[in-house]
Design goal:
391 residues; alpha/beta; Rossmann fold; 2 domains; 16 helices; 40% helix
Length: 391
């Protein structure tokens, strides 16, 4: 399971594909197409990013049946960026239902146009998988925390000779091709301003009213813009963990961009901004994207959330599911004090079943107030879909 990046070196992805037909969703540049190229070298490919192919199948979506009819049992057909031609999906759905022994793999960088059709095909036994940025465990000894916090883990960006400029181009690509060209927003200037303001909410509680006021965009429009970010797989939100709650909790979700590099390129930084705070939010976001990748890769359903009371006690991440129950607090400093531990210790009192731990900058594994303290690089390098978050 390999992916080819810009310098023609191969970096293994920890990704186990199903044998059935499936959707493979992920933002642009995360390596879906190149991974498929090496995973399925003999597959028939339809690249719908090519104008000729897009026009052909938009006009005659039934032509996919002609392709299928010519293939022997056991063949694989890859439909790249299928959201470009959603009219293909009913045809594929019908072909899957006919059970002719052909596997269909449909990639997409946007769930917006696919939402209803994805639901239909999932009922027709097409599975859903997601591919995100690199995991630290995929890069192994090549992983650099300092580099990652600045430019992120998107494969397209990782080995670029000029990652900052490539990130700018990446954001502009989305604004131009995915947002403006698809007519998702009426005013691209409003959306660009919204993106910048949203960067201040990365790793923070999302409040639509505040974003609306600061970006000078209506509340309903802000809600729509947030849905666009989620549909384009550029951002995600975490709900509040509320199982068996004894305390009054907030109700607003927490917001993250899908990659630390995307956050850093969107986040304005001037003389009044403290780099330690920006680094701290980037660090928490980096942990968030790894934990989310782990949750999405599980065959059994797990939830990723956070915990925050109305008295401002907060634990950054809660994972709950068949494989375990973890509460994780991320700290920039390895020198923990009573204030750093108050929230996690309170959560432990309320949920003694939870494995509670700190993830910190530092090099030494230790404990504080009876709770494990794990260096962040060790923690991230240990996250793979097969492993528990922390044994």
């Amino acid at each position: 399971m390999l992916i080819m990046i810009a310098n023609s070196h191969y970096i293994p992805r920890i990704f186990n594909p199903p044998k059935e037909s499936y959707f493979l969703l992920g933002p642009r540049g995360t390596g879906k197409s190149t991974w498929l190229l090496h995973q399925y070298p003999n597959a028939v490919r339809v690249d719908l990013l090519l104008g000729e192919e897009e026009r052909r199948f938009s006009a005659y979506p039934e032509k996919i049946r002609d392709i299928a009819a010519s293939l022997p049992e056991g063949s694989t057909v890859i439909l790249d960026e299928i959201q470009r031609v959603p009219r293909l999906l009913p045809e594929v759905h019908s072909l899957i239902e006919e059970r002719r022994g052909i596997q269909y793999i449909m990639t997409g960088s946007s769930a917006r146009k696919l939402r209803r059709s994805v639901s239909d095909l999932l009922g027709g036994r097409a599975l859903l998988r997601q591919m995100g940025p690199f995991l630290a465990s995929e890069l192994k000894e090549k992983f650099s925390l300092e580099k990652t916090l600045k430019t992120g883990l998107i494969p397209l960006i990782w080995e670029s000779s000029n990652p900052e400029q490539r990130l700018l181009d990446y954001i502009n690509l989305y604004l131009r091709e995915e947002v403006q060209a698809e007519g998702l927003v009426r005013q691209i200037g409003d959306f660009s301003r919204f993106l910048e303001i949203s960067s201040f909410s990365h790793a923070s509680v999302w409040t639509t009213t505040d974003i609306s006021r600061e970006s000078n965009v209506k509340r309903a429009t802000v809600d729509n813009y947030l849905h666009i970010l989620e549909d384009l797989l550029l951002a995600f939100t975490l709900p509040v963990f509320s199982r068996r709650a004894k305390r009054k909790l907030i109700t607003h979700p927490k917001f993250y961009f899908f990659d630390s590099g995307v956050y850093r390129i969107l986040r304005p930084q001037g003389i009044l901004d403290r780099s330690q705070e920006i680094d701290g939010w980037a660090l928490e976001g980096l942990v968030a994207q790894h934990l989310r990748c782990w949750v999405l890769a599980q065959n059994q359903p797990h939830t990723l959330s956070f915990w925050r009371t109305q008295t401002h006690l907060e634990v950054d991440f809660i994972i709950y599911g068949p494989k375990g129950f973890w509460a994780i607090e991320v700290k920039r400093s390895s020198n923990l004090g009573p204030d750093d531990a108050r929230s996690l210790l309170t959560f432990k009192e309320e949920y003694p079943e939870a494995m509670c731990l700190f993830v910190v900058l530092g090099k030494r594994k230790e404990s504080y107030r009876g709770l494990p303290v794990i260096p962040i690089e060790e923690f991230l390098l240990g996250i793979t879909p097969e492993n528990p978050i922390f044994p």
